[in-house]
Design goal:
Blueprint (H helix, E strand, L loop, with lengths): L2 H25 L3 H23 L2 H18 L10 H35 L7 H19 L3 H11 L5 H8 L3 H19 L7
Helix pairs in contact: 1-2, 2-3, 2-4, 3-4, 6-8
Length: about 200
């Protein structure tokens, strides 16, 4: 082993010890230690999440989720079982895959809800049935123009009848983000539908 190799191993070893110390400080609720760990790993955690979810917004939320979880469970980290970076990457992968599974379940529910919107119960008037059918198709087309993240929460809220808290639990998305997406989605949907259909 030459001097260059020894120097690299020393730097790597010191880096690992520094990260173990950071986790120990985080376990003691040291916010500055969490900030240092965030600065060191946020970009790579985002990259891992993006490869799984293929969504900038979802990947950003995974980064926040991971560091929120680290803040909560840092005391459970055991250095003898693995490196800090490996531990972080396992948490990231787990959170991203959970989010992916939630999206798949929500997607199935939304497909069924859209079908229900088009096949809504008939009225006594054939003319009214046609009007209802036309409006349903038009609203669905407007929904399809929304960003996917806003469309998802709107469809879960209005077609599946879930509350904001239930949507957050089902999708793994924070409650504040759910409310923001619903508000933005409704605004865009009203603009898309226009005055022709009256108040939405």
């Amino acid at each position: 082993m030459d001097s260059c190799d020894r120097k690299f191993l020393k730097i790597d070893y010191e880096g690992r010890l520094e990260e173990i110390l950071l986790i120990s400080r985080i376990a003691s609720q040291d916010q500055s230690a969490l900030s240092l760990l965030y600065d060191r790993y946020a970009k790579i955690i985002y990259t891992i999440a993006y490869r799984i979810l293929n969504s900038p917004e979802e990947s950003e939320e995974i980064v926040l989720d991971v560091f929120t979880q680290v803040w909560r469970i840092a005391k459970n980290y055991q250095s003898q079982k693995g490196r800090v970076d490996t531990w972080l990457f396992m948490i990231t992968r787990s959170r991203a895959l959970d989010r992916l599974r939630s999206q798949a379940r929500a997607g199935k529910a939304i497909t069924a809800s859209k079908d229900a919107l088009i096949m809504r119960s008939h009225s006594d008037s054939p003319e009214k049935d046609v009007l209802i059918q036309e409006r349903s198709i038009y609203v669905k087309a407007c929904l399809d123009q929304l960003p996917a993240d806003q469309r998802l929460v709107l469809e879960l809220a209005y077609f599946k009848g879930l509350s904001h808290s239930q949507i957050a639990a089902e999708t793994g998305i924070s409650l504040g983000t759910i409310k923001t997406r619903i508000r933005l989605g409704l605004k865009k949907l009203r603009e898309a539908i226009g005055a022709e259909w009256g108040d939405f």
